[in-house]
Amino acid sequence: MLKRRLFTPGPVPVPDRVRLAMAQPIINHRAADFLPVFRACREGLQRMFQTESPVLLFAASGTGAMDAAVSNLLSPDDHALVIRGGKFGERWGEICEAYGVRTTYIDVEWGKAVDPADVAAALEANPDIRAVYLQASETSTAARHPVREVAEVVHRDGDRLVVVDAITAVGVYDLPMDDWGLDVVLSGSQKAFMMPPGLAFMGVSERAQRFMQDAKCGHYYFDLEKELAVLPSDQTSWTPAVNLLVGLAEALSIILDEEGLEATFARTEKLAHATREAMGAIGLDLLAPDAPSPACTAVMVPEGVDGPALRKTLRDQYGYTVADGQGRLKGKIFRIAHLGYFDRFDTIGCIAAVEMALSSVGYVHEVGEATRTATLLLRD
Fold first, then answer.
1. Which helix (H) or strand (E) holds 79?
2. Res 380: pLDDT
3. What single string gives the DSSP state of each residue in 190-245?
4. β-strand partners of 321
5. Class of the 16-257 domain?
6. What are the tens digits of pLDDT across the range 235-291?
């Protein structure tokens, strides 16, 4: 028997309680018994995003929310600044260009964090920039951008928006939307929320709501003004993913009311730190050693090892599925997740499996050293 274990940074494992909640008989989304479910989700999301602003819900992946964060805020020929330091930074640019938005890029080496001084210089050189788009946690590289410092630069002068893809940051580490002056913050259900894919979330500030009034890009399903109008009545404009929302209410209760948000941050960081140290203990390099995101750890495939063969061995022989690299990193890294429904024994088991798989594909190291390192760091 081989038990399968999922260690990708989305989708992530779903707790039994959440799966059982979603298995309940479906209810009508316009009926009275749905309203408390939606209200629990709406209020819980505000706590997760650390905001008094509304947090909208869509039946979509996170990319749907990214699309809406361009089409509802800007007009064709408006000017946007995009931080491009990975596959998802590239996606911001692709969406902007699809809507005819003029785009200036700050290209950051993959695995590095953007320098806020470069953002300041770009804004000074292009004073007509209306919005800055960036990732908080660039999932493709496991790097973390200095969102707070970037927001301070953006709001230092001029009327501009800070739009943050926090799909693998909300619920992973402290990212207070209101305190940091973030105008739009996005996330998705299949990440720290411990849910299946299918829900996208978007926090929108008062400044962002004001920008919507002048935006001229076309949109229909992802209409933020429509969603804002019906949100206080605990409804969505279109049919919501009812049973996913039932599960989300249960997941939010686990995170916010049982573990607590600060404890969730601490657990995730501890798992990430132990994994980084464990990989170093057997001579493996990290892609983002200087600005690591606790959402996942991107490990360089060692020289002489076939990356796809390593992941296949890890999956087929030892039952652990980890993520490949994306774009130019495909086959060159593997990514181990920490966000969501993982505890220390999950992580220790994954590290042990990685050691076994490495040994199976010919990487010479002292087998057990990474596992020992992680165990010592996670024993308390």
1. strand 79-84
2. 83
3. TTTT---S-EEEEEE-HHHHHHHTT-----SSS-HHHHHHHGGGT--SS---HHHH
4. 6
5. alpha beta
6. 999 999 999 999 999 999 999 999 999 999 999 999 999 999 999 999 999 999 999
**Alpha-carbon distances of 255 from 68, 116, 195, 369, rounded to whole Å:** 27, 32, 12, 33
Name the helix (H) or strand (E) containing 228: helix 224-230
Domain boundaries along the sequence of the chain: 5-11+261-378, 16-257
| CA 343 to mean position of chain CA atoms | 19
For the domain bounded by 5-11+261-378, which CATH number is listed? Answer: 3.90.1150.10
**161 pairs with which residues across the strands?**
131
| Number of residues assigned to the chain | 380
CA-based nearest residue to 47, from 298, 221, 264, 243: 264
Q: Are 215 and 196 spatial neighbours (Cβ–Cβ below 8 Å)?
A: no
Instruction: Determine contact, residues 58/223, Cβ cutoff 8 Å.
Output: no
Span 16-51, pLDDT tens digits: 999 999 999 999 999 999 999 999 999 999 999 999
| CA atoms of 75 and 212, how far apart (whole Å) | 10
Residue range 100-134, pLDDT digits in tens: 999 999 999 999 999 999 999 999 999 999 999 99
Which tokens belong to 239?
């049919």
- Of the chain, the percentage scoring pLDDT greater than 90 comes to 99
Strand partners, 162: 132
Amino acid (one-letter) located at 83: I
Residue pointed to by tokens 């020992």: 372
